[in-house]
Amino acid sequence: MKLSTMLASLAALCGLTGCAATTTERLRLPPLGTVAHVDLSRYVGTWYEIASFPQSFTRGCTATTATYTVRPDGDIDVLNRCRKGSLDGEEDSALGRARVLDPVTNAKLEVSFFRPFWGDYWVIDLADDYSYAVVGHPSRDYLWILSRTPTMEDATYRELLARLQAHGYETVRLVRTLQRPAPAAPPRPSTHS
Questions:
Q1: HEC sequence for 91-117
Q2: How many Cβ atoms are within 10 Å of 170's Cβ, its own excluded?
Q3: Tens-digit pLDDT profile for the chain (193 aa)?
Q4: Which one, 66, 77, 95, 191, has the greatest CB density within 10 A?
Q5: Torsion angle (degrees, nearest 10) of CA 141, 142, 143, 148
Q6: For 131, which DSSP code?
Q7: Residue closest to 179 by CA, chosen among 81, 100, 95, 105
Q8: Domain count along the chain
Q9: What residues have CB less than 8 Å from 63, skipping those under 6 apart?
Q10: What single-letter DSSP state applies at residue 167?
Q11: 144: CB partners within 8 A, 6+ apart
């Protein structure tokens, strides 16, 4: 079946059965905003998922990470990894591609793991030092809290929750992601004689 036929069939089915409204529509929220600017050269690298809204495609995932790498064509490779069932479970991965939609801010991107389908990926909160980021979707039905380290201080997490609630996110839906703690730094050698 052609894609256009599939989409027309889906639209007709939604019209007949009534598709669920997005959180933004259901709660009559204003459009979702983004951060003012993302320096992509600082944003690329590996991020650890601290919490997210559960999705069917991430069911059973622990130790979830996303690694972003700039491609020669300016797009971004996205490598998502997780361990299934436990921190020692089998690794599962998916390779996708992201592209910037708003080159003025670099905060609105879209990602595809199954071309030709693309999904919005908006950076809605970002630490000045790029130690954490929050990624959302204009529907407010997708949300990820990311960190450069496998753990996040509780005070920082609570501050993010308060800001997300102020932007209309139903933060009670967030589920913390089980991560393996970062290894402790080795003790420094004693300088005493």
A1: EEEEEEEEEECCCCCCCEEEEEEECCE
A2: 15
A3: 332 332 233 333 333 334 568 877 886 878 889 999 999 999 999 999 999 999 887 889 999 999 999 999 999 999 999 999 999 999 999 999 999 999 999 999 999 998 889 999 999 999 999 999 999 999 999 999 999 999 999 999 999 999 999 999 999 999 999 998 877 666 676 665 5
A4: 66
A5: 180
A6: S
A7: 81
A8: 1
A9: 81, 82, 83, 87, 150, 177, 178, 179, 180
A10: T
A11: 49, 51, 52, 53, 134, 135, 136
Contact 54, 62 (CB under 8 A): no
Residue 106 lies in a domain: yes
Q: What is the pTM of this model?
A: 0.82
Which residues constitute the domain of residue 130?
Answer: 23-173
Domain assignment present for residue 52? The answer is: yes
User: What CATH number did the domain enclosing 80 receive?
Assistant: 2.40.128.20
Distance CA 40, CA 176 (A): 26
Q: Tokens 């909160």 appear where?
A: 125
